[in-house]
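Good morning,

Both structures are done.
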Amino acid sequence: MRPYTPTSPNSLKHSPLFAALLMSCTMPQADYVAFLTRADSLMGVRQDSLQAQFHIGTYARFDYDEATGVFVFSDSGVAKVLADAQFVGEVSRNDTTWAWAWALRQLSPSLTQSAIKARRYGWWHGIHRLKASGWHADYMDGWEMTSLTGMIAGAEGGYRAPSSDSTAYTFVLFHNVRWAPPGATVDSYLVSPRASQ
């Protein structure tokens, strides 16, 4: 008799049977609602903390540099608050559909790691909305996906911004939120060619 040798997790990932079982897994609706409620509550506390400490949302403008992934909140060209951003996704205002950041080709994979974590979580736990893109959505759905992703990825808070052409609401998560050095200008944080256009 041969001794039992456990199957390695990596070999399971490539098994057709395992893939079929994973695809058929669906989290019960009551469990999903409880999970979403917990995420909304947690991210609400984190959002309130960001607002109290850094006054996110009160500054005259924000700029973003895709090379560094840094959001810069500013007043009159003076940088006030910096945050490392991860894109979650966007809700189209034209056809009211949700697109995950990992499905948006214009985004660098380094800026979609939190969304990829959420997708992986969705596959393992049977949460359809975390693993599928293109479903009917409004801005509240965008906030819900941001809350879920923020909890999964350990983000400090989230933000909703209009796309540059105002055709979508873009949702991002913030990590490493910090004060800009006194007197720092916005331009000192915009290093990519696209940011300076």
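Second structure follows.
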Amino acid sequence: MAVSDLLGITAQGLTTMRRQNKRLDFGQLQKVIRDYNVTEIVVGYPLRMSGAEGIQSDKMKLFAEELHKKFKLPVHLCDERLTSAQANRVLRDSEMSIKRRGEVVDRLAAVLILQSWMDMRGSGR
């Protein structure tokens, strides 16, 4: 997970949330929404490399709809193609151990997704 600064300019990573069950997951999300005064939610949208939608894309659309119904906030889907690969590349170039890289790759991918969405939104696209 990631959140933006108050001005919506930069994304900062939060601890990776490991899915458990809907009740606990939504409880954790509710806490993040409250603690960080979240007003919009951005969800990674897994497209195929061609840009086509697939089974995972459909699942994330349904999840986004659930989030919207549950939290009454706008929910945006953001293309997440290559974010994990980009995160791995950034971490590989660092001095970080392989074990530590594995622990932070999801956090960095979340930051990249949110930052990408904020950048696109800021440029008016």
